[in-house]
Amino acid sequence: GTRYGRNSFGRRAAMRAMASLASECRDASGRTVRERLCELLRDSDFRVQGQAIASLEALGDPKACSALSEVIDGGFDSRLGRRAKEALRKLQEGEAQSTRIAKLQTQGDELRMQVLQLRSRLDAIDARRVQAEPPAPSKAPTPQRRKGGKKTIKP
Q1: Other C-beta atoms within 10 Å of 13: how many?
Q2: CA 44 remoteness from chain centre
Q3: Tens digit of pLDDT per residue, the chain (155 long)?
């Protein structure tokens, strides 16, 4: 577990595992993990605080930005402040990137609809063209005579 009093190495490993597992789900368990990691930012162990920052970054939840800003603005160790700035920047970039991805997905859906509409219009035009065209004359082979009087058929 992540409780105070346990081995620091084990606590940090538990934090990495929590962030890794919670990054896959966006439900109440992800919120609970984020809240616990934010609490661990105030832990007395420097390494646990650093791992909390790294785990919040790995979690990828933009709601953790306010807690990271507190680390930057608060009276924390300057090394933690630098790590928090980097994590905050990555979370903000990730949020902007997810917005761009959502916009591209919407544009892709719109383009698919336009392609379907264009295909149906082309099919309608082809159908009208086929109806308007007279049937092509068949090119039946014509009999021709060879030397000697026998008939052969050439196309």
Answers
A1: 13
A2: 37
A3: 666 667 778 888 988 888 888 877 767 777 888 889 999 998 888 999 999 999 999 888 888 888 999 888 887 888 999 999 999 998 888 776 667 777 788 888 889 999 999 999 998 888 888 887 766 666 666 666 666 656 556 55
